[in-house]
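Let's sit down with a protein and look at its sequence and fold side by side. Which protein we use is up to you, so please pick one and set it down. Label the sequence line and the structure token line clearly, so we can match residues to local backbone shapes. Go ahead whenever you are ready, and we will take it from there:

***
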Amino acid sequence: MMGPKQEAQAALFYEFSLEEHVPQDHLLCAINWFVDLSSIRAHLTDLYSHTGRPSIDPELMIRMLLFGYCFGIRSERRLCEEVHLNLAY
């Protein structure tokens, strides 16, 4: 089952914008500008089962693997830890 695409959601009492906290000259901003993965979900929908637990969003997974490659992170477990710790990811 393909996991849901997560949309940005404003907080109840304050707003937080990643664009204000991640510098525009950061490597990840350049990658995000060049890499368009918006159509990946449509291409992969048929490959996912409609039953079972939902998986991670395929666009998010490919972005994580791409960032891990750029930053030399060889372990997927370590990559998940880095994503939890680093706002820019």
User: Anything to note?
Assistant: The helical segments are 18-21, 27-34, 40-44, 58-70, 76-85. Residues 58-70 form the longest helix (13 residues). The CA atoms of residues 80 and 86 lie 10 Å apart.
